[in-house]
Amino acid sequence: MQYTWTTDSPEQTIALAEKIGAKLCPGDCIAYRGDLGAGKTTFTRGLALGMGLGDCVTSPTFALVHEYGGGKLIHFDMYRIADENELETTGFYDYPQAESVFAVEWSENIDAALPETTMHITLEYTGDESRRITLEGDERFADIGT
């Protein structure tokens, strides 16, 4: 199933992501698509809030991975990962995906390594602060408005 929303500010993007985060379960994997600066980390901030983890999210660009809530949310940045060997060095396979929610920025770099049940979120610029956000997932998200 595919759902699309439009947000007009980072605050609206966070609020939408918070609603989605409230419906996530351990074992879920969110794979982001979107240009640099499209709002992937902002969206993850909302997921964390919805999961009850607080406003604790920062970009994992230099660290490659951040854990939040004692491992309830694992936030990866795969921007610099080019192949399976490099993916191994991130510790991606060492994290307990069945016990965590994965949020993966630049997921297209590791598509083959993502679970079949991965949900894709695409963030597209529609203006300076507005975004079109498309989620390819399941019926859990059917009742989410903006």
Characterization of the model:
The chain is α/β, with parallel strands linked by helices and 146 residues long. Helix content is 20%, strand content 26%. It is built from three helices and seven strands. Helix 1 (10-21) packs across helix 2 (40-50). The radius of gyration is 14 Å and the shape is globular.
Topology of this structure?
Blueprint lengths: L1 E6 L2 H12 L7 E5 L6 H11 L14 E4 L4 E5 L6 H6 L11 E5 L13 E7 L5 E6 L10
Parallel strand pairs: 2-5, 2-6, 4-5
Antiparallel strand pairs: 1-7, 3-4, 6-7
Helix pairs in contact: 1-2
Computed CA radius of gyration, to the nearest angstrom = 14 Å
Distance between the termini: 17 Å
- Mean pLDDT comes to 88
With strands numbered from the N-terminus, the spatial order across the biggest sheet is 1-7-6-2-5-4-3
- Helical fraction: 10-25%
Number of helices, counting only DSSP H or I runs of 4 residues or more = 3
Structural class: alpha/beta
Let me know the number of strands.
7
List unreliable stretches of 5+ residues: none
The H-and-E topology, N to C, reads as EHEHEEHEEE
How large a portion of the residues is in β-strands, by DSSP E? 25-35%
Q: Report the major sheet.
A: 7 strands, mixed
